[in-house]
Design brief:
This protein is α/β, with parallel strands linked by helices and about 400 residues long. It has two domains: about 120 residues, Aspartate Aminotransferase, domain 1 (Alpha-Beta Complex); about 250 residues, Type I PLP-dependent aspartate aminotransferase-like (Major domain) (Aspartate Aminotransferase, domain 2, 3-Layer(aba) Sandwich). The protein is about 35% helix and about 15% strand. It has twelve helices and twelve strands. It starts with a strand and ends in a 7-residue tail after the last helix. The protein binds pyridoxal-5'-phosphate. The site of pyridoxal-5'-phosphate (PLP) has 14 residues, from α3.
Length: about 400
């Protein structure tokens, strides 16, 4: 049977580099997994291993104080912490109409408790205009939330310009980098982000159950409430308040094995040459787009201009429901793609791809040019034989 061609890295990266899988196993075998119980060597080693990953992430994203790198259970968890921790009744938020549900849903809940939201529309290419974002600011705008790249179209938003305009009136900026961290080299400062939410299991090549929230210097921890409280890795004497970082946000036994494997993934990315990998992904996306553009009946929803997108390419194929096309691609051609609303139903609605969503193709570090050509041929073949008129 032919090997699997996996083009669903925007959902989760697969396969993971060998060292990530090995680290998961050896760490579980050798360490206690529960950081720092006084006098317990295994626990101390676990704690030190976690702190090394924190330092590595801080260096990767240009954060001078590693204590401002917080481990979370996922990108969703990081976004919930930022959104629910910062916002309260009377606050206003500016965001876009194409955000992931991990942004949209916490905001919808907060709207029931007196937070108001303005969702700025996007152009046909999925890009938002920074001027429109600025116009939506109000005196009580506490937070601007922007996805660095859309998980539906891969459209890279002009985050720097959006952040600069928000900072003029002192508004904090939360950047959701789930689809760009590990894809494009950047630091917190490069983006102008005050809070950066990351998913560990996507392009950073870590295991599921890992995420990160990075706090920039403008974020005062006393204004960011934790989502959970409890025991922390370091024994803190104060029962009522945990102001110290990162403990304030990391109560409970952490996912030590996942965090350490995420660290191994990060090291792998750096050693392999992150910028080279990044350029390769871009070339694969360009090849894919160039191929799909030539197929009659295929409508691309991703920006055609290469600098405006990451390697997350959505399309619609005439006569096919995305989920049906994906199913045939897998069964007949052994090609795995994403299909449906991608956890971003509002984005799909905004882009005119509701309720069925899109077919999403996202190559990864393992994808070859031959894989891309095979996918283009398969889509071309299926586009000639629609399953049914939609
Ligand atoms: C843009 C975006 N934000 C947030 C998330 C949530 O990340 P996680 O799967 O780590 O919770 C995803 C995952 O699909 C995403 O694509």
């Amino acid at each position: 049977m032919a090997v699997l061609t996996y083009l669903d890295n925007a959902t989760t990266s697969w396969p993971k580099p060998e060292v990530v899988i090995r680290t998961l196993g050896t760490f579980l075998e050798r360490a206690s997994g529960v950081p720092l119980r006084p006098g317990n060597r295994l626990a101390t080693e676990t704690w030190e291993a976690i702190e090394r990953v924190r330092e590595r992430l801080a260096a990767f994203f240009g954060v001078p104080d590693p204590r401002r790198v917080l481990f979370t259970a996922s990108g969703t968890d990081a976004l919930n912490l930022a959104i629910k921790g910062l916002l309260g009744p009377g606050d206003h938020v500016v965001t876009t109409a194409i955000e992931h549900d991990a942004v949209r849903r916490p905001l919808r809940t907060l709207e029931l408790f007196g937070v108001t939201t303005t969702r700025v529309g996007v152009g046909p290419d999925g890009l938002v205009d920074p001027v429109d974002m600025q116009r939506a600011l109000r005196p009580n705008t506490r937070l601007v939330i922007i996805g660095h790249a859309s998980n539906v179209t891969g459209a890279l938003q002009p985050v720097v310009e959006i952040a600069n305009r928000a900072h003029v009136q002192g508004t904090l900026v939360l950047v959701n980098a789930a689809q760009t961290a590990g894809v494009i080299p950047f630091t917190l400062d490069d983006l102008g982000a005050d809070l950066l939410a990351l998913s560990g299991h996507k392009w950073l090549l870590g295991p599921p159950g890992t995420g990160v929230l990075v706090l920039g210097p403008r974020v005062d921890p006393s204004e960011l409430a934790p989502l959970r409280e409890g025991a922390t890795a370091r024994d803190l004497p104060d029962i009522t308040q945990l102001w110290s970082l990162p403990e304030r946000y990391e109560a409970g036994t952490p996912n030590a094995v996942g965090i350490v494997a995420l660290g191994a993934a990060l090291e792998w990315l750096v050693q392999e040459g992150f910028t080279t990998l990044s350029a390769r992904l871009r070339r694969l996306a360009d090849r894919l787009v160039a191929g799909l553009e030539t197929i009659p009946g295929v409508r691309l929803l991703s920006p055609s201009d290469p600098p405006r997108r990451v390697a997350v390419i959505s399309c619609l194929v005439s006569g096919w429901r995305p989920v049906d096309l994906a199913s045939v691609l897998e069964k007949t051609y052994r090609i795995v793609v994403g299909a449906g609303l991608h956890g971003a139903s509002e984005a799909c609605r905004t882009l005119g791809a509701y309720p069925h969503g899109t077919v999403r193709l996202s190559p990864g570090w393992c994808t070859t040019e031959e894989d891309i050509d095979r996918v283009i041929l398969a889509v071309a073949e299926l586009a000639r034989t629609p399953s049914r008129a939609d």
